[in-house]
Amino acid sequence: MKWLSRKVTCNSHGQDSSYFLGWQEYEKNPYDEFQNPNGIIQMGLAENQLSFHLSESWLSRNPDAAGFKRDGESIFKEIALFQDYHGLPAFKNALVGFMEKIRGHKVSFDPKKLVLTAGATSANETLIFCLAEPGEAFLLPTPYYPGFDRDLKWRTGVEIVPIHCSSSNGFRITQSALDDAYKQAQKSNLSVKGVLITNPSNPLGTTVSREELSLLINFVSAKEIHLISDEIYSGTVFDSPDFISIVEELKDKNLEDTDVWNRVHIVYSLSKDLGLPGFRVGAIYSNDEIVVAAATKMSSFGLVSSQTQYLLSAMLSDKMFTSNYIAENQKKLRERHDMLVLGLQEVGISCLKSNAGLFCWVDMRHLLSSNTFEAEMELWKKILYKVGLNVSPGSSCHCTEPGWFRVCFANMGEETLKLSLQRIKAFVESTMTSNNDVGAYSQRQSPRNSRRRSIPNWVLRLSSHDRESDR
Ligand SMILES: Cc1ncc(COP(=O)(O)O)c(C=O)c1O
User: Fold this and answer.
1) Ligand 1 pocket: which of 43, 117, 272 to mutate (most atoms within 8 A of CB)
2) Residue 399 C-alpha to ligand 1 middle, in angstroms?
3) Closest residue to atom 3 of ligand 1, CA basis
4) What is the number of other CB atoms lying within 10 angstroms of the CB of residue 339?
5) Residue owning the nearest CA to atom 14 of ligand 1
6) Nearest atom in ligand 1 to 270's CA
7) pLDDT for 362-382, tens place per residue?
8) How many CB atoms lie within 10 A of CB 165?
9) Which of 117, 351, 406, 407 is surrounded by the fewest CB atoms within 10 Å?
């Protein structure tokens, strides 16, 4: 296809990963209680639908906000004409206030250092454009959010080098994993520009510990590189330990106004904490003035519409609403999380212990027919087509151990979650009793290298570096 650009025809978008393929299969046969009761239940979408009643009730109490009005008077023209890419000051003030509240007011944010973007997707890409050249690299702990292949690599030409984390320590980031990833990048002649973490983690649903944050700060300080902390799930922490933002750790280490202070950047969005992915509200927060200025110019390519800013500045300025929302939402998330974890436990499936997010990281290694990514795909297809659940296989998150799946619990009603648990139960019971090849893996571990050889092609295409590591 000579007449099209390489961007269009290259594979680095990641569209052919099972993460996106599962969505396509779901679209063809979506579950509906009445219209399609045997359809596929979507458990591969990290959406938060648990607290809409709160935002909807706020909207009915505050009709001016969505009705282009101030004190009853129309401000339609003012909003329709507003196009300053610095954003509405009232909205930026309200957004930093919300971010501070989520962090228990342990840190404060300056709205001048905030750049508005069309979601965290745009925020992450914009930051990468600001911090790295095509062909340079960012290190990312695995497993990671499958969308990062698109967001960080596709248009920027920047490479992702995985920091391999393992189940042996609950997928925590270690010094040796960081060092190995750095060495791997050097071996591949890639200059490392930074590390990107998600805190809380997608797909693990865990908060990053103080020790890990400290390790990361020391690492980026020593290497003189950047640290991006995607804190899009910061408001979803429903259990201890508390969420610690990277800025809090920097403050506690007395690193304000130092070099590293300017090289740490936060990404945020209202897609998860407020359940508004359709509104496309994201932000970059950086202490580096040049990054803020450049990202502000770039934000022209993905601004947040002025009516959205107007509506949300009113909603987020209502302190009673935000306090109540955060607390209620966390309570609901905890209930849902517990329901999924206990339901899976009943059929012998365990989850990584988690305290945040809209999903669980589920261990189905004992259901694999062998310790390979082919077996993971085989199991994923069974779960998708036979059980009727779209979950995300660990390989789509670049997990190096076959058999882990991300399962979302906040994008559906309680009855649907109950049904999905019933379906899993029936599946596990039937396979355990009738089919000896499934589950047989736990008795006969295959050699380590056979796992590497059997990684499916699309996994290899998504991150060429995954296969190069042989630890
Ligand atoms: C870690 C992470 N970053 C960024 C995004 C993109 O979010 P947004 O809808 O704000 O673009 C997601 C969405 O799932 C995510 O999980």
Assistant:
1) 272
2) 18
3) 120
4) 15
5) 46
6) 10
7) 999 999 999 999 999 999 999
8) 23
9) 351
Average pLDDT score over residue span 261-284: 97
Q: What are the Cα distances from residue 138, in Å, to 84, 112, 149, 153?
A: 32, 26, 11, 10
Candidate from 122, 142, 232, 312 with most ligand 1 atoms within 8 A of CB, to mutate: 232
Distance 232 CA to ligand 1 centre (A): 7
Helix (H) or strand (E) holding 251: helix 246-252
Residue nearest to atom 4 of ligand 1 (CA): 120
CA 120 to ligand 1 center in whole angstroms: 5
The C-alpha angle with vertex 312 and arms to 57 and 246, in degrees rounded to 5, equals 115
| pLDDT of 224 | 98
Return the best residue to mutate from 43, 126, 145 for the ligand 1 pocket (most ligand atoms within 8 A of CB).
145
Closest ligand 1 atom to the C-alpha of 281?
A: 10
Distance 270 CA to ligand 1 centre (A): 9
Residue length of the chain: 471
Inter-CA distances, 292 with 35, 80, 89, 136, 245, Å: 49, 26, 15, 21, 20
CB 412 within 8 A of CB 42: yes
Write out the catalytic residue numbers. Answer: 145, 230, 232, 272
The answer to whether the beta carbons of residues 420 and 390 sit under 8 Å apart is no
Alpha-helix runs per DSSP H in 62-209: 63-66, 76-81, 89-102, 119-131, 148, 175-187
* Structural domains of the chain in order of their starting residue, each with its CATH number: 6-52+322-460 (3.90.1150.10), 65-319 (3.40.640.10)
What are the pLDDT digits (tens) for 35-72? 999 999 999 999 999 999 999 999 999 999 999 999 99
Mean pLDDT of the 5-29 span: 80
pTM for the full predicted model: 0.91
pLDDT higher than threshold 90 for residue 266? yes
Residues 6 or more apart whose Cβ sits within 8 Å of residue 286: 113, 115, 127, 262, 265, 266, 292, 295
